[in-house]
């Protein structure tokens, strides 16, 4: 009974690395397609002043759909797919760091905390330039300027397509800020995502262990994990959303100071301004985290070295 209740964690040395990376890229792409519209909505909600344009997540969804169609919900998506690279760097760093920390501590909480924070540091160093460009693309609306930069239209009044828009935004960032512009908000990103990642993994394992002790031993482990993921994501989102709002404003509005951005936000909108976009963040995080957790745990099981398959209970 104890063995069946105990959720066995598949570590880096247990994996067939070729399977792990091939399946991992495919899984990550599917997840990004499903949650990207809510990422776009969250960005717009966090940048707008008060409720000047959208009154909430659902209102933003309907207005964007009416104004720009389905493609409006995927502005900047092609650029954002380059974060697949950072995603693979994240999981590799996470697993290798867990292996390294295991030489000094057998505590799963310590391993998860250190590995989660380290993985986020590596991933954000790759992701921030991509995020800066894709966020400016997310802010494009037909005939209106909602961010620092506006994509130039064609003579017929239509916006340039796909990577033409991307090139235009990149040129404008370079002219305005130089290469440093692509790392605008880097510190704010680290202050957002390192704590978010460092908190998510320990809470994920904590919730899974608690659910395992409460549920019948016949209940599959993947059920605990699928429930634990969104609970951990909601916990991490609530704790880190204030910094996420500031990060988004720094990157999109071109601000240079985290402290000044915070003061301006508090003066204009009060403490509730720090919670802007939280519902969109949780809504996007819940289904995506279920898919990520089920996908990631299944990915690790599929990538398990053949000689270890029969020794595990799922």
TrEMBL record:
InterPro entries: MCP, MCP_dom_sf, MCP_transmembrane, SLC25A44. The keyword Transmembrane helix applies. One of its GO terms (molecular function) is branched-chain amino acid transmembrane transporter activity. The chain crosses the membrane at residues 20-41. GO terms for biological process: amino acid transport; branched-chain amino acid catabolic process. Solcar repeats lie at residues 18-100, 107-210, 220-302. Its main location: mitochondrion. One of its GO terms (cellular component) is mitochondrial membrane. It catalyses: L-valine(in) = L-valine(out); L-leucine(in) = L-leucine(out). Keywords: Amino-acid transport, Membrane, Mitochondrion, Repeat, Transmembrane, Transmembrane helix, Transport. It is found in: Mitochondrion membrane. It is a multi-pass membrane protein. Belongs to the mitochondrial carrier (TC 2.A.29) family. Mitochondrial solute transporter which transports branched-chain amino acid (BCAA; valine, leucine and isoleucine) into mitochondria in brown adipose tissue (BAT). BAT is involved in BCAA catabolism and actively utilizes BCAA in the mitochondria for thermogenesis. This is Solute carrier family 25 member 44. It comes from Balaenoptera acutorostrata (Common minke whale). The gene is LOC103006548.
């Amino acid at each position: 009974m104890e063995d069946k209740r105990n959720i066995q964690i598949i570590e880096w040395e247990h994996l067939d690395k070729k399977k792990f990376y091939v399946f991992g890229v495919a899984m990550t792409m599917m997840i990004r397609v499903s949650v990207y519209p809510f990422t776009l909505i969250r960005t717009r909600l966090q940048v707008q002043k008060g409720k000047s344009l959208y009154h909430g997540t659902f209102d933003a969804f309907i207005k964007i759909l009416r104004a720009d169609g389905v493609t409006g919900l995927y502005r900047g998506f092609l650029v954002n797919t380059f974060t697949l690279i950072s995603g693979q760097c994240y999981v590799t760093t996470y697993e290798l760091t867990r292996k390294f920390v295991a030489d000094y501590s057998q505590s799963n909480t310590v391993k998860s905390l250190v590995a989660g924070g380290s993985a986020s540091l590596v991933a954000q160093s790759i992701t921030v330039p991509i995020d800066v460009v894709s966020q400016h693309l997310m802010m494009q609306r037909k005939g209106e300027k909602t961010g620092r930069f506006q994509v130039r239209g064609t003579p017929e009044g239509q916006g340039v397509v796909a990577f033409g828009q991307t090139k235009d935004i990149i040129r404008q960032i370079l002219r305005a800020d130089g290469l440093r512009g692509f790392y605008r908000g880097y510190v704010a990103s680290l202050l957002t995502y390192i704590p978010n990642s460092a908190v998510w993994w320990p809470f994920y394992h904590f919730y899974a262990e608690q659910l395992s002790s409460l549920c019948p031993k016949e209940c599959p482990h993947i059920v605990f994990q699928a429930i634990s993921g969104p609970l951990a994501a909601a916990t991490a989102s609530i704790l880190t959303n204030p910094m996420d709002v500031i990060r988004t404003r720094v990157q999109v509005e071109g601000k240079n100071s985290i402290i000044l951005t915070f003061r301006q936000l508090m003066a204009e909108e009060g403490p509730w301004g720090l919670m802007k976009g939280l519902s969109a963040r949780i809504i996007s995080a819940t289904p995506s985290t279920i898919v990520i957790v089920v996908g990631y745990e299944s990915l690790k099981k599929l990538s398990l070295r053949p000689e270890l398959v029969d020794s595990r209970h799922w």
